Amino acid sequence: MALFVSxxxxxxxxxxxxxxxxxxxxxxxxxxSSVYRTVTIRTVGIAAAxxxxxxxxxxxxxxxxxxxxxxRSRAFLxxxxxxxxxSSYLVRVYIWRLVLDDKGVLNWTLQKVGLPSAxxxxxxxxxxxxxxxxxxxxxxxxxxGALERVPESxxxxxxxxxxxxxxxxxxxxxxxxxxxxxxGSIFTFSLTLGDYVTPLLAGGTSSQFxxxxxxxxxxxxxxPSAAAFAAVPxxxxxxxxxxxxxxxxxxxx
Amino acid sequence: xxxxPTRIALGAWTTLVVLFLWIPLALIVLYAFNTxxxxxxxxxxxxxxxxxxxWTSDVRGAxxxxxxxxxxxxxxxxxxGSMAAxxxxxxxxxxxxxxxxxLVLPIALPGIVTGIALNSAFVAGSVALSTWTIVxxxxxxxxxxxxxxxxxxLRRSSPSLLEASQDLGADGWQTFRFVVWPVLSTALVAGGxxxxxxxxxxxxxxxxxxxxxxxxxxxxxxYIRLGQQLPVVNVIAFAMIAVTAIPVLLAQRLxxxxxxxxxxxxxxxxxxxxxKISAY
Lengths: 253, 280
Hints:
The structure holds two protein chains of two kinds.
Chain A (H helix, E strand, L loop, with lengths): L1 H19 L4 H8 L1 H35 L2 H16 L2 H12 L4 H9 L10 H26 L2 H9 L4 H30 L2 H6 L7 H10 L3 H24 L2 H4 L1
Chain B lengths: L3 H29 L16 H8 L2 H32 L5 H13 L2 H14 L6 H26 L3 H8 L4 H30 L2 H6 L6 H11 L3 H28 L3 H15 L5
């Protein structure tokens, strides 16, 4: 029984909350106000950029791990990917604050190499970079899993039939590994979408995410608006999951 | 087989990505020993005095609260999660799909939604926010982790094992001790570890369910936002990374010794999948 209670607790208050605000005004306000629109576009845009970045970073690594690395180096790579995944999220965000600071490691390195300094600390660039860093292992593991399952014989067959490396990649490997990439993207996309800690700690005044707005509205007691705005990431995620299902991501999990 | 340049390029890319993952973690080790309380690079001199400062400050209380909450939430999750998994895996009953959906829902929701929902539930039921409300908040996602791990394991093991055990004359306890437990133990350990790790690191749900107390992550979050006590934050960050390294390396060793790295990999993916969104 207690089990049912604990799972209902998270759901029931929410639905009553939503019923509470189920007049269209709060949603109309979401649509009409340019602030809400800007914040939504920023959140979804950065979530998409993070997903794309992680996919690009993870794919070659996943391929190397699955198909080129020997036993020992594969075991090493596993630890190398898992350890950052398990270490504290807050700590990892905090470290980047130190690195990207105007007097941090990044600018010191740039200066040593003779490049102009970059002040990306506390900007949307910082938010993008940190999200890409923090969620990268969530992309690597499913991509690796998908690539490992591609039978070597498919690739050999493709080559025997005269396909070049690029064609084999585009026509064979990519379609077969795509569910893995999409599965990873569910993590990176939804985690970024629902987060407010990274924008809070590492973003600037124009880095507010949906979560930050919801958080401050709760703080000022405007629960109906907050609940309405919190429905936006849920809706976006719902649509995203539907698309992912069509692409076969759930079979790859 | 890939051409040689392709292999080299892939290897180089892999090295760069691993460096990207690891350089920040390596840096925090250095920062923890930074003498200056201004966090700028390069670090000019090193000291261990911040370790002492961290131990004598509010940190100890927050650490103790985090450990307590994590242990209780994990214990609740182990009991409820495995019971639910047994129910869903072994019996067909009315509303079974709905139960499994409701169980998994909390991790699909962004933490802030779960947090607000719990908070308004506590306010509506006039429950004062305390250690126990944090525990309930954490239990919502810890249960899911254990549930998913155990369910996956049960689905992969055949129910005929139990029947065979009974046919061979084992009583209920013997069946549990010699058949069920060996099948489930590693799933429970993995689920429990993961649940504890998630609880120990949780910020968002905790923000909404904690009263005046601070768990360790809430304390650090406050310090970072206000820019206070940063040397102490460095020390905690270093300690947290060192502590998380232990279970990962241990698990890796165990997997290598028993030669089931690939199965280990599958379990890792399984774990990641369940950790999923609960990590925010």
